[in-house]
């Protein structure tokens, strides 16, 4: 017996040593796993990267069948799916898309139980499915055959950001190492936080890019003068109304014919408002394709529809805390009028394919050349949207009712386009001014601008002595005019060709086209090459 007892003591020491060595080896293996996992997680930048880690590391580590992460949404009152790695029998279920795209309350008993626990929570699906107040996805889990789910809260800096769901076999629960799972979840918390931060940075980057594009567009299209040209009685009334409404957040409806300067008035109201430090966002309702209007105004999430490869920030969201100018609002389709009315009333929106409601603070300035009251009576415009927009209407006078403003406007455009074209036209003859004041201006200020521009190109001296007004337009026939404008390129090309025809194709020398155009022959040759003018153009004309 003493010999046997001595042998047993030695065996006990050996077994204890073996167990200690095994525990040390296991801890070292876990440390190695966690170290490798932390290095890979630190490099994660997208949800797809995270799914790759889940497939290659975590599922094998814990013998997991399915894996999912839920995130707490921006509103902090709901949670929704972040990433999922599921088998076909689950993803092919008819209710899968509806269940996984929904948002659930953070106060439901299941999520609260997980969030308040410091350790992993083992969920028996059959038992919790009959409890009151459970989220709908628990019933879905039961329908697709899930029996046991292990859940663990994800936290960063003591703040809850979501949770992990692991579908495991019931007989595998005893093998799960709690400390290892908690350590892995700690790494996952950092990964989820980093990915969300990266997505937000990308969203801000896209927003800045859109603002930059808008700013470039504004620089190209904005009228570059400090004050609106015109001090007549009609415009003084407009200025008075602008001064009354500019400092408020009230919706403004600008009414007037095409070319009366509605965008310029909208910009002046914005620049005189407390929102002037932010960019005014402009939307031309006639320029938007019907199938893209909703996405353009309200934005969309990635994958919301075919071609939506990334999240898009809509114009309303881009104009948050600023002004949104809705030009040609009368052209908006009826179905979009309903959605626009809701956003204006509720001051909140949802991106297409999005689950979160986004609060906005946007001041609306709308403009139209239509008679919206007639459009309402004809059933083309919703009365409730009209009343919502018609808070503070401003009627812009047509140019034919602003005779005192025609001369200063003409001289303003003369100075602008003389500089742009390199001509030295400095004055307008009295006969031209009389013609301008006698013309009914169906195209209003925009028509005056283009006619001055064209006339400068056709003038050889420094005084504008002739302006080519349409001859078939008289007072009372404003709506019958169909004006088409040529580009500077087209006008200059046409004018040079006409001069070449009159000069019989002669370019240099006395009586040549260069002499008539008052430019060196080399310059004319250069312009002809740039404008694509060849001999066949002016010889065929001849």
Automatic annotation (TrEMBL):
Q: Which Pfam families match?
A: AAA_lid_14, Sigma54_activat
Q: Which SMART domains match?
A: AAA (SM00382)
Keyword ATP-binding (UniProt):
yes
List, for all copies, the residue spans of the domain called Sigma-54 factor interaction. 228-457
Q: Tell me which domain of life the UniProt entry assigns to the organism this sequence originates from.
A: Bacteria
InterPro entries in alphabetical order: AAA+_ATPase, AAA_lid_NorR, GAF-like_dom_sf, Homeodomain-like_sf, P-loop_NTPase, Sigma_54_int, Sigma_54_int_dom_ATP-bd_1, Sigma_54_int_dom_CS
Which organism is the protein's source?
Ilyomonas limi
- Read off the Gene3D superfamilies from this record: 1.10.8.60, 3.30.450.40, Homeodomain-like, P-loop containing nucleotide triphosphate hydrolases
**Protein name listed in UniProt:** AAA family ATPase
Q: Return the PANTHER family for the record.
A: DNA-BINDING TRANSCRIPTIONAL ACTIVATOR HYFR-RELATED (PTHR32071:SF123), TRANSCRIPTIONAL REGULATORY PROTEIN (PTHR32071)
List the PROSITE patterns hit by this protein, alphabetically. Answer: SIGMA54_INTERACT_1, SIGMA54_INTERACT_3, SIGMA54_INTERACT_4
Q: Under the GO molecular function aspect, what terms does this record hold? A: ATP binding
Alphabetized, the UniProt keywords read: ATP-binding, Nucleotide-binding, Transcription, Transcription regulation
One record GO biological process: regulation of DNA-templated transcription
């Amino acid at each position: 017996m003493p010999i046997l007892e001595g042998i047993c003591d030695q065996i006990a020491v050996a077994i204890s040593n073996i167990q200690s060595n095994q525990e040390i080896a296991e801890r070292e293996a876990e440390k190695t796993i966690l170290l490798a996992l932390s290095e890979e997680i630190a490099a994660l930048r997208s949800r797809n990267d995270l799914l790759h880690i889940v497939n290659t590391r975590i599922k094998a580590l814990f013998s997991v069948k399915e894996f999912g992460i839920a995130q707490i949404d921006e509103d902090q009152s709901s949670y929704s799916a972040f990433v999922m790695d599921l088998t076909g029998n689950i993803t092919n279920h008819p209710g899968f898309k509806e269940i996984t795209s929904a948002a659930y309350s953070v106060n439901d008993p299941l999520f609260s139980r997980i969030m308040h626990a410091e350790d992993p929570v083992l969920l028996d699906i059959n038992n919790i499915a009959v409890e009151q107040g459970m989220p709908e996805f628990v019933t879905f889990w039961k329908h697709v055959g899930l029996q046991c789910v292990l859940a663990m809260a994800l936290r960063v800096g003591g703040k809850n950001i979501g949770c992990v769901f692991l579908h495991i076999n019931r007989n595998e629960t005893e093998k799960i190492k709690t400390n290892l799972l908690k350590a892995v979840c700690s790494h996952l918390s950092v990964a989820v936080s980093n990915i969300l931060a990266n997505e937000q940075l990308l969203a801000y980057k896209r927003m800045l890019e859109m603002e930059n594009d808008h700013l470039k567009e504004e620089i190209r299209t904005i009228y570059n003068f400090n004050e609106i040209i015109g001090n007549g009685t009609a415009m003084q009334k407009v200025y008075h109304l602008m001064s009354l409404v500019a400092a408020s957040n009230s919706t403004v409806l600008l009414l007037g014919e095409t070319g009366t300067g509605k965008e310029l008035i909208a910009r002046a109201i914005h620049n005189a408002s407390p929102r002037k430090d932010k960019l005014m966002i402009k939307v031309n309702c006639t320029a938007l394709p019907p199938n893209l209007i909703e996405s353009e105004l309200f934005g969309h999430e990635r994958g919301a529809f075919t071609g939506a490869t990334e999240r898009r920030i809509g114009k309303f969201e881009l104009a948050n805390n600023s002004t949104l100018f809705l030009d040609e609002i009368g052209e908006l389709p009826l179905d979009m009028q309903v959605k626009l009315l809701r956003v204006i009333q509720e001051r909140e929106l949802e991106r297409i394919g999005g689950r979160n409601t986004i609060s906005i603070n946007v001041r609306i300035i709308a403009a139209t050349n239509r008679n919206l009251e007639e459009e309402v009576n004809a059933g083309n415009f919703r009365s409730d949207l009209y009343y919502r927009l018609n808070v503070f209407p401003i009627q812009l006078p047509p140019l034919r009712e602003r005779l005192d403003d025609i001369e200063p406007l003409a001289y303003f455009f003369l100075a602008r386009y003389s500089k742009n074209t390199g001509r030295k036209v400095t004055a307008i003859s009295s006969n031209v001014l009389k013609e301008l004041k006698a013309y009914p201006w169906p195209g209003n200020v925009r028509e005056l601008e283009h006619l001055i521009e064209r006339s400068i190109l056709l003038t050889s001296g420094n005084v504008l002595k002739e302006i080519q007004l349409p001859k078939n337009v008289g007072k009372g026939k404003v709506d019958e005019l169909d004006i088409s404008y040529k580009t500077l390129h087209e006008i200059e090309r046409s004018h040079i060709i006409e001069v070449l025809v009159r000069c019989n194709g002669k370019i240099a020398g006395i009586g040549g086209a260069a002499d008539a155009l008052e430019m060196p022959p080399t310059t004319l040759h250069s312009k002809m090459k740039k404008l694509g003018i060849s001999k066949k153009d002016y010889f065929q004309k001849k």
